[in-house]
Amino acid sequence: MGGTVNPGGAGRPGARSGAMSGNRASGRSAGSGRSGGSPAGRPNGKKRRLSKRQRAIYRRRRIVVFSALVVVLFVLGFTVYSLGRGAGAVINVATGNASHAVLERSTSPEPHHSATVKNCTAKNTRLELTAKTATVAVGGSLDWVATITHEGSDSCIIDASDSGRVLTITSGGETVWRSDSCPTEARSLLMAKGDKDVQTITWNASRTSDQCVENQDDLPKVDRGTYVGVLSLKNAPKVKSQPVTVEVQ
């Protein structure tokens, strides 16, 4: 009887020992989780969410920054463009091309470009002169209309100032008045086929001399008689208009 073994009793000590060991292990595990976890109230790995007002503020900031960038790029582009045009103007002045004014045209062809543009001559230029009235009183004034027409195929340069395109008024065989009696600035034009330049020249029925008189009213007046006006090019004397006759009464 004393040697009989109780099967259920043999397992109890082991079961109690295992349960105690498991409880201790669970306690350590729980304690370890409390000590190593994140503090209460702080979610781990979650992004901060912005309010609608904050998002609107950030959007406005981005728009402002982008607009400022666009303005800076525009200013830089305009500056580069202006510098380029300024450099081109300096080059034109240095090469002597700045004084050549190009005529405005609507239907005329563009000037023929060549390495060297020559001065206009009798072969490609025609001068016309008309008087607005056929008579003028002594001491009065008369307007003449001077027209330059380019008829050549190649472009050419002409001085259309009163000193380059000269109006000469004579009476008999005597020169009475010249538009180049006083020096004037050159008015150089680059002309293509069909281009015209029309200018008005006022004659105060006066007489010029070898010396320049700035105030035309100080010049002596001409007497009654017949006077003839003719246009000519100073650099090409063969280019002349038809003579126009007027009467001073």
Q: What does this molecule look like?
A:
It is a single chain. The chain is α/β, with parallel strands linked by helices. It contains 2 helices and 12 strands, in the order H-H-E-E-E-E-E-E-E-E-E-E-E-E. The radius of gyration is 51 Å and the shape is elongated.
Strand content: 25-35%
Query: What shape does the CA trace take?
Result: elongated
- Which structural class is indicated by helix and strand composition? alpha/beta
The H-and-E topology, N to C, reads as HHEEEEEEEEEEEE
Helix proportion of residues, in percent?
25-40%
Number of helices: 2
**Tally of strands:** 12
Query: What is the arithmetic mean of pLDDT?
Result: 77
- Measure the end-to-end span: 177 Å
Which terms summarize this structure?
alpha/beta, elongated, 249 residues, five-stranded mixed β-sheet, disordered N terminus, 12 strands, four-stranded mixed β-sheet
